[in-house]
């Protein structure tokens, strides 16, 4: 079994643009799977914005409930602006995490919040959209981890083909 595992759960996402951007974030930050509930995304999926084709390496799976079949070792982390939540800046990410995000035009149901091991929020003025929140949470996880790879080889592998710039030294 893997040391680190990250799954993302989206509750009834309405925007294919946001789901495409979540998929891109999942690919960039090496999430394992993205699960979603509801019918709104399926109706709008033809407008796919997964420009880096993360769906080739990250599974996108429609489910009836995000709480079904979660491995016992995986911690459920709800990400929502609710009273009593932990600010992301103070949160320590578990090795095996299932991050659940509410819909853009609603909130995570109370029964889901009650089953969470932790409920966190991004301490901003106002709320971020779904894709921005996923990006911030996954970046925070990476920034706080011991497995960050930061070197020029990563830059060469990750950058756009139109970018070949270097920082001039000295």
Task: Explain what the structure shows.
There is one protein chain. The protein is an alpha/beta fold. It has a single domain (5-158), classed as Alpha/beta knot. It is built from 5 helices and 7 strands, in the order E-H-E-H-E-E-E-E-H-E-H-H. Strands 3-2-1-6-4-7-5 form a 7-stranded parallel beta sheet. Strand 2, helix 2 and strand 3 form a beta-alpha-beta unit. Helix 1 (16-28) runs parallel beside helix 4. The protein is globular. 30% of the residues are buried.
- Which CATH C-level class is it? Alpha Beta
Instruction: Provide the residue-averaged pLDDT.
Output: 84
Query: What strand line-up does the widest sheet have?
Result: 3-2-1-6-4-7-5
Q: List the total number of helices.
A: 5
SSE series: EHEHEEEEHEHH
Topology:
Layout lengths: L4 E6 L5 H13 L4 E4 L3 H5 L14 E4 L12 E5 L6 E2 L8 E6 L8 H6 L2 E4 L8 H14 L8 H7 L12
Parallel strand pairs: 1-2, 1-6, 2-3, 4-6, 4-7, 5-7
Helix pairs in contact: 1-4
Structure described in brief:
This protein has a single domain (5-158), classed as SPOUT methyltransferase, trefoil knot domain (Alpha/beta knot, 3-Layer(aba) Sandwich), CATH 3.40.1280.10. It is 26% helix and 18% strand. It has helices at 16-28, 40-44, 110-115, 130-143, 152-158; strands at residues 5-10, 33-36, 59-62, 75-79, 86-87, 96-101, 118-121.
């Amino acid at each position: 079994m893997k040391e680190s595992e990250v799954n993302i759960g989206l509750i009834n996402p309405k925007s294919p643009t946001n789901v495409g951007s979540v998929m891109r974030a999942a690919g960039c930050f090496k999430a394992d799977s993205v699960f979603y509930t509801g019918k709104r995304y399926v109706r709008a999926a033809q407008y796919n914005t997964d420009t880096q084709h993360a769906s080739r390496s990250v599974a996108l799976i429609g489910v009836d409930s995000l709480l079904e079949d979660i491995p016992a070792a995986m911690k459920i982390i709800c990400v929502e602006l609710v009273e009593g939540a932990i600010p992301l800046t103070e949160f320590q990410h578990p090795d095996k995490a299932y991050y659940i995000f509410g819909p853009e035009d609603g909130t995570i149901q109370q029964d889901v919040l009650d089953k969470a091991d932790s409920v966190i929020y991004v301490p901003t003025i106002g709320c971020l959209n779904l894709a921005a929140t996923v990006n911030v949470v996954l970046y925070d996880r990476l920034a706080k981890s011991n497995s960050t790879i930061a070197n020029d080889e990563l830059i060469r592998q990750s950058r756009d083909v139109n970018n070949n710039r270097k920082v001039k030294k000295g």
